[in-house]
Amino acid sequence: MKNFYMLLIISMIFFVSKPVYLQSQSTQEEDLKNFKLLGEVNEHHQFLYQLAGEWKVNFVNYQLEETTSGIGESKSQIIYGGRYLEIKNVILVQGSGYESTTLIGYDNRKEKYILIAYDNSTNYPTIFTGTYNVAKKQFTFIGRDYMIFLKKEVEIKIELTIDRENKFTSKFYYGDTKSPTIAMELVYIRK
């Protein structure tokens, strides 16, 4: 009789624990599947490929009392298995070199594009979120940055438009979203 109760208890533990184990295994498999989906390269990433290549750059800065312009070069490449576009600019403006590195990717979690930019004139990144309009062939990014000549942080909008296969334009605006002021424009022509 004692063995019967012992066998009954062991059987109950087995039957109760088996569904818990299977449920735990199922949850882990589902979590792994969701994790893989978040890391997938999808159609949103494909739009970044249009910007890859080597480019001549024409630069105009409207932020100062006097408009300044410059020329330079840019190299853009798709990195990390198609997840990001890395853009490296070197531009000569009034005898000074301006260098920047920009990363653009698509965040599958937030369903938005992310742009992170660094340059040799600041000590902090500028971070934007954005969308892509297929009909216009245009990325639009919104973020905030400190404008030194305004002495305050303002909203910044970047419109990156694919004009044609061998040309794209990047325009930076600041201020009121209903009537923003253009700050600078970069025109990229494929080499």
Descriptive report:
The structure is a single chain. With 191 residues, this protein is of the alpha+beta class. The chain folds into 2 domains: 1-39; 43-190, Beta Barrel (Lipocalin). It is 22% helix and 52% strand. The protein has 2 helices and 10 strands; from the N terminus they run ααββββββββββ. It has a 10-stranded antiparallel β-barrel with strand order 1-2-3-4-5-6-7-8-9-10. β4 (96-107) and β5 form a beta hairpin. The protein is globular. The N and C termini lie far apart (89 Å).
Q: What is the topology?
A:
Elements: H1 2-39, H2 43-46, E1 53-61, E2 68-79, E3 84-93, E4 96-107, E5 112-119, E6 126-133, E7 138-147, E8 152-164, E9 167-174, E10 181-190
Antiparallel strand pairs: 1-2, 1-10, 2-3, 3-4, 4-5, 5-6, 6-7, 7-8, 8-9, 9-10
Question: Could you provide a short overview of the structure?
Answer:
The chain is α+β, with helices and mostly antiparallel strands.
The rounded Rg comes to: 26 Å
Number of domains: 2
Question: Looking at the structure, what is the overall shape?
Answer: globular
- Output the CATH class name of the largest domain: Mainly Beta
Main pleated sheet: 10 strands, antiparallel, barrel
CATH topology of the largest domain: Lipocalin
* H and E string: HHEEEEEEEEEE
- What is the share of helical residues? 10-25%
Tally of DSSP helical segments: 2
For the record, give the distance between the C-alpha atoms at the N and C termini, rounded to a whole number: 89 Å
Q: Which consecutive residue ranges, at least 5 long each, have pLDDT under 50? A: none
The CATH architecture term of the largest domain is: Beta Barrel
Q: Strand pairing plus helix content: what structural class?
A: alpha+beta
Write down the overall mean pLDDT. 86
Oligomer: single chain
- Lateral strand order in the biggest sheet: 1-2-3-4-5-6-7-8-9-10
Which superfamily, in CATH terms, is the homologous superfamily of the largest domain? Calycin beta-barrel core domain
Strand residues, percent: over 45%
